[in-house]
């Protein structure tokens, strides 16, 4: 591995000139002949790497805007090396790229195999065939400010980590491969400049419509520096030997906070966020037809009913568990509506419905029987959880059991026919339309859970076979893809977290340790999508004025380049279960990051969220955008869009599935997830004395779960009723005893 320093001058985003200086380990002073600056380096050894603080000092004013870079350069480069830029690039995004209008839908030719190469839109990627290709991103385009690669042949990993800002400038990360010379360059720059072109999603100037475009003109440029000014670029280089790809993800997750750690903050308690959304749901999301919609503008079919995915049939589940009156009755009404009105004779459930009409998924011209399989996989999982709750609590399930069993049977038939579930099917013909995706992986957990409810070994067998299929074809290769219905087969976080949920359910069902091992591997991939630091938003932005903390938000996918509040559409309680099964507290810390971040994005009557449309979000609304990237234009960074989105469902799920305070008597662990402070004052054999303080401006009710993690039956399908509750006024401090 070689290292070098570089200065570049720019006219706009075009490079005018550059000067490159090799880094010599025995030298810490460097001068540039073409630029009025010099660099000094101080080095600190780290486990498996080193930290370099590189200070650039200017002895004259610069004539042209410029930037400064540190480059990690590797020889004997191979295209099959796995390139990672968290939340943005997985395996180099080295897939077939097709410039498609939004929403993209690319159906292969009839004679194509369902295992042909994945298709992505025009997003940043390294090329399949060209000898030279490049990916250039700003730090805000990624979940963590780093880039690196895993060498399969050498069983080694290398990572270049920086800070997301250097001084007042956002940093940039570039991966540049030159197959002719068998070289690759991993570069950290300040200010970040995407040279000539950048990724932009919107109305294109070429008349090709509203679409993603990796070749849009770059809006970046360098900076002018004054005599006497200095700039310090901090870099960490990590290198690991004799590791697997799965080890690589785990090591990356361990290293990514070396330079930037999230700040502790308190904002909106879980209960306040939950009740605000619940009230909004009762007022605006229950339709005259008797079901909870996924949006509030019922003139748009996509906001009426969409199965699973963004909330259809999931949004009723929290009310079933938490409420005892109207909201629960409406949840039951929603379940009845799904299986009396929305189920196709084949057993599948229509993907989209509104005002008496069914609509197909994918392309706007698709027939209404075209289904994104992921939608039904998500729906089945949550429907079976609700069947268990109904059965456990004395409610009749007779009218639901046969339709749900037919639903399960549809998945079994599809798998028996194709050996996979694909991405899109025609549910009337039960034919696969687009395959080659991990998008429907929640079906693994759904069928495993259904095998318990219906005592059906066939459902369990198919779940096991599917679980192995997804591991071999996706998890083991370090890339899960195609869960959202409008990204083609791009990598995404939703598939990773759905796969994690499924493997843990399969472990609960079978008690076979292989599924727990698979879950741990999947978790490391999933966590690379979670923002590991607090982005510094532009001072004038709404996010800055609201003191938003981006850590714990989750990048959606490699195409839609924004982070989001929560997991689409889960609570992340799989991480709690992963802690219970392994004893590793890191999983509790991961869950804290995701769950604790969520409530700050709920628009409240007392503190409404302002949007780019120049109006406030109503109370109980959440928007899916956490804009650290300028993928939709620089003016959108730190801003929010108007509209009701799926994070509302993630927040509802979080309240009923993630305890505000978790106490494990087995390991004497206390973990706070909610926006309160809580401390142990004494551990007893069957109780614990706690002191709790509410530092927020809102009265709340805190949920507490007293647990013994070795009791595997304590936290399974539905455990909300096992949580205890403690009311707490704003600013109140109390002491109390929590018993097992």
Protein described:
- The protein has 740 residues and is an alpha+beta fold.
- Helix content is 26%, strand content 26%.
- The strands form 10 sheets. The protein has an 8-stranded antiparallel sheet, covered by helices on one side.
- A hairpin with a 4-residue loop joins β25 and β26 (431-434).
- α2 (270-284) packs across α14 and α7 runs antiparallel to α8 (457-475).
- The mean pLDDT is 96.
Structural topology:
Elements: E1 2-11, E2 14-22, E3 29-31, E4 37-46, E5 49-58, E6 66-75, E7 82-85, E8 89-90, E9 96-97, E10 119-120, E11 132-138, E12 146-151, E13 156-162, E14 165-166, E15 169-170, E16 172-178, E17 183-190, E18 197-203, E19 210-217, E20 230-241, H1 245-255, H2 270-284, E21 305-306, H3 317-322, H4 326-341, E22 352-354, E23 357-359, E24 370-372, H5 373-392, H6 398-418, E25 424-426, E26 431-434, H7 442-454, H8 457-475, H9 493-510, H10 513-527, H11 542-545, E27 554-555, E28 563-564, H12 573-582, H13 586-597, H14 647-657, E29 661-664, E30 669-672, E31 677-683, E32 687-693, E33 700-707, E34 724-728, E35 733-739
Parallel strand pairs: 9-10, 29-33
Antiparallel strand pairs: 1-2, 1-6, 3-4, 4-5, 5-20, 6-17, 7-8, 7-12, 11-16, 12-13, 13-20, 14-15, 16-17, 18-19, 21-22, 22-23, 24-25, 25-26, 27-28, 29-30, 31-32, 32-35, 33-34
The CATH topology name of the domain at 2-255 reads Beta-galactosidase, Chain A, domain 5
Strands, total number: 35
Strand order of the biggest β-sheet: 3-4-5-20-13-12-7-8
What is the CATH first-level class name of the domain at 2-255?
Mainly Beta
Share of helix among residues?
Answer: 25-40%
Low-pLDDT segments, ≥5 res: none
The global form is: globular
